[in-house]
Amino acid sequence: MARSDSEATGGQKPEAGGRKSEDGGRKSEAGGLAKDGGRRRAAGLSAGGVAKVDGGRAGEEERRKEISAFLVEKSQIRPVRKVPTCGLRASETSEFKLVNARAEMLGERGSGHTGALACLDKGRIGVAAVSLGLARAALDAALKHATTRKQFGKHLADFQAVQFMLADCETELRAAELLVLEAARLATLGVRHTRESSIAKLFASEAASRICNRALQIHGGYGYTRDIPVERYWRDARLSEIGEGSSEVQRIVISRSLLSSFRSFRSFR
Questions:
Q1: Residues designated as active site
Q2: For residue 219, with 0-12 CB atoms within 10 Å meaning exposed, 13-18 middle and 19 or more buried, which class applies?
Q3: What is the pLDDT of residues 96-139, one digit of tens each?
Q4: What is the DSSP letter of 253?
Q5: How far apart are CA 254 and CA 67, in angstroms?
Q6: pTM higher than 0.70 for the full model?
Q7: In b/e form, how buried is each residue of 16-27, taking b as 16+ CB within 10 angstroms?
Q8: Cα angle for residues 63, 24, 124 (degrees, 5° grid)
Q9: Which of 225, 207, 235 lies closest to 139, judged by CA?
Q10: Which domains does the chain have, with CATH numbers?
């Protein structure tokens, strides 16, 4: 990692969901041996030289309380299969097994869950930024098609229904850009930005899906073919509403932060 070699981050079991506490790995008391017979998934495993894997202590109750992160060499990971995905196919999501893999613990024992949560704020800004790129590419494609394609003797862009779709796309994209920039600004300043990153990720990811959907609609049946990249933007954008915490999780984070701030302010008064 210090040499900036490629890395894969994963270790999530297919049945674990989004909660690290439900991910059932084990580690020895010595802290250097990660034992796991189950299957796990990671993105970028084929390119990565090392993989970060989260695991807990043996014992159901203890596992909920203690999760540690391990650095595992790629040579100690047994690939099982490549998982076919709807979008972002270049990430090559893979399924793998750890069998008596010798690993180095990252950070202090039991700090894996805290470390993972600490990465989420910036990770969500990253997902939001990717959403902006997909949305902009989709809108640019829609604008080009609408101003060149003719129907009933005039360009698609001359129809008010298409104009309304383009206007909605631009409005949502501009709003998403400002939210992402604000979250990134706070992250750069080093101040807490949990609520802002969740707001940016929630709005940008859902806006990107809507914009890509409208862009495909403007292209009509041609947009549903693989002759043009609009359908890929549409597929790729969908993951943004799931990765780094689903839209539902973002709403929970935002509402809890909002209510906590309101209650603190009211008690202070």
A1: 244
A2: buried
A3: 887 777 778 877 887 777 777 778 999 999 999 999 999 999 99
A4: H
A5: 25
A6: yes
A7: beeebeebbbbb
A8: 90
A9: 207
A10: 7-110 (2.40.110.10), 113-268 (1.20.140.10)
